[in-house]
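Example (one chain per record):
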Amino acid sequence: MQGLEQLATLSALCFFHTISHLSIMDPTSSALKDVIKRYAKPFPADIDFHGHQFSHAMNTIHRAFIRSVDRRRFTWGDYKPPGDEHIVVAQVFVKLARFGYQRTQHTKVPRLILRFALYSLSLDPLPPTPVIADCLSIIAIDLGCDVPTTGSTALDERCVSTS
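Predicted structure:
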C-alpha cells in the first residue's frame, strides 16, 4: 500500500530472518511447511517488488517460497542489491551462520549462507566493507574459528581465534 513501503520492507526482512532461522534450526518443521503453503496463496508467482526498498531481498524471498526452492541448490547469481540492503542481509546471515553452526554440533554453516558469503565476495565491484567483514566472518565460522560477537561491522574491529 502507498505510504507503507518502509513497514513492508521491515516486515519482509523480519519474515526472512524468522523463516531462515527456522529452516536452519528445524528444516523439517511442520510450521515451516505451513508458512510456505500459506505464503503462496496471497502472493502470486508473477508479483514484482522492484521499486521498493530492499526489492532484491524481497524478490529473493519470494522466489524461494513460491518455487519451494531446494535450499541446497539455491544460488545467488542474480542477487545484486544496493549497498544498504546488502549490509542488512549480511548482518542477518552472520547471526544465522552462528545458529546453524551450533545446530550441527560445530561442523558446518548452512550452505545457503556460505554460498551467499562467497558470492558476495566475488562481486565486482566489491560490496561495502561491512558486508566483506560479515562474509569473512561467515567463512571463519564455517572453518571452526571463534568469531566473537562484538556488534561491530568494521573490518578492523573484528578478530578471529583459530584455537
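Caption: Residues 5-157 form one domain.
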